[in-house]
Specification:
Oligomer: single chain
Distance between the termini: 96 Å
Shape: rod-shaped
Number of strands: 10
Largest sheet: 2 strands, antiparallel
Order of helices and strands: HEEEEEEEEEE
Strand order of the largest sheet: 1-2
Length: 143
């Protein structure tokens, strides 16, 4: 009598520990960060996966600060250089807004006149664009 040979199935959403990650095929949220290569589940570069077990797939998170914004979970910006984006938390710094394409570095800019002083590029921000009121074009002016 020959024994059966059993193997884990990549993409069924059940993690028995054979592969470094597991996802459920068709569930785009759980597929991010984990993919099937040569019938094996592999972690996508720039991601980390964990938490799966015999009843559920892994949760995958993209690395913060690598300059590749995957717009997943709380990763609101990622530009790797820290200008306008906190590289530890991947959130815009106070006074900045960040935009970019999925999988690439974000571009962060400050908005002069919004009433929020962006640390670094703005000496002041009084919430208007009135000249000679002490803060003109987000630079201190004499009154």
């Amino acid at each position: 009598m020959t024994k059966d040979v059993c193997s884990e199935i990549c993409g069924d959403g059940l993690d028995f520990g054979r592969y470094p990650c597991e996802f459920k095929t068709g569930d785009t949220a759980s597929e991010r960060g984990c993919s099937k290569v040569d019938n094996a589940c592999v972690v996508t570069s720039g991601w980390s996966c964990s938490g799966g077990d015999t009843t559920k797939p892994d949760a995958c998170y993209d690395f913060c600060g690598d300059g590749k914004n995957m717009f997943h979970f709380n990763n609101n910006c990622d530009n790797a250089n820290g200008y306008g984006c906190d590289t530890a938390t991947c959130t815009p710094r106070t006074g900045f807004s960040c935009t970019g394409a999925d999988g690439s570095a974000d571009s962060c800019t400050h908005t002069c006149g919004d009433g929020v002083r962006a640390v670094g590029p703005e000496a002041c921000d009084d919430g208007n664009s009135n000249p000679f009121d002490g803060c003109t074009a987000c630079s201190l002016t004499e009154t």
